[in-house]
Amino acid sequence: MYLLYIDESGTHKGSQFDHFVMGGVALRDEDVYPFSRSVAALQRRVLPKFPGLEIHATDIFSGRSTWAVVPPADRIRLLKAVFEHLQTWTAPSGGHPVYFGVAINRPSNVGKDILQLAHVELLKRFDTLLSRLHNAGDSHRSLVIADNSSYEKVVQKLVPEWKVSGTIIGKLHGLVEVPLFVDSAASRAVQMADCVAWAIFNYYERGNAEFMQSLNGRFDAEGGIQHGLAHLVRSYHRCPCVPCASKRTNTVSSSLSPWPLTQ
């Protein structure tokens, strides 16, 4: 079984930002425990005085909430260590996390339900990975686990409908249950999904490629196309970002395009 942990960055409505992002970390069930333990061990090693603080990228970067007591240099050192870990960690089984993300450009999607669109795109891309594995003889079912949120009831109602009648981009086949919502403070994997979403948001919204570059090689990709990351922008046919460009060139670039991206 595959578990997909998801979180968001940028509010889905009433926001001053141009982008709303959802990020995901997909792990085989046998890899979840060692992955979570590895993240906890990393935090203890890098910040031995603060081993129990929840890893929430926005708070760490800005020094907000419980992270206000941690010196800036230590906070940035932890963030860099976390993203290096996301780039390089390999499970005892030999597998590694697969990342997913959806970056929705608001001006290009006026009048659309941003939250629903983000879930459809993210879950369908995850489902595509499962279908590809199934066709290769490696069948998996899946569960989606998300941070507690105000839209829990909305999503739990929609997913069963998508499995039967399909979404605007096809049916969801691999999900065995509606998404489960948990307290992110209790789940290191959800915390890492937060970091993935934050890195994507900072790349598309602010042009900060440093942390996003660490993830680039582990977004789901096949046949020269980066399927795992979607950039929903009106001018996708000329956008130079990796997922948009890969659809034109059948090549997944190892380097991110410089800012600003074409909108």
Structure description:
The chain is an alpha/beta fold and 263 residues long. The protein has a single domain (2-234), classed as Nucleotidyltransferase, domain 5. It has eight helices and six strands. The chain has helices spanning 29-46, 57-62, 72-88, 114-135, 152-165, 188-206, 210-215, 242-249; strands at 2-9, 19-28, 98-105, 142-147, 180-182, 229-232. The chain has a six-stranded mixed sheet. The protein is globular. 43% of the residues are buried.
Which tags fit this structure?
263 residues; 42% helix; alpha/beta; 8 helices; Nucleotidyltransferase, domain 5; six-stranded mixed β-sheet
What's a concise summary of this model?
By secondary structure, the protein is an alpha/beta fold.
Strand and helix layout:
Elements: E1 2-9, E2 19-28, H1 29-46, H2 57-62, H3 72-88, E3 98-105, H4 114-135, E4 142-147, H5 152-165, E5 180-182, H6 188-206, H7 210-215, E6 229-232, H8 242-249
Parallel strand pairs: 1-4, 3-6, 4-5
Antiparallel strand pairs: 1-2, 2-3
Helix pairs in contact: 1-3
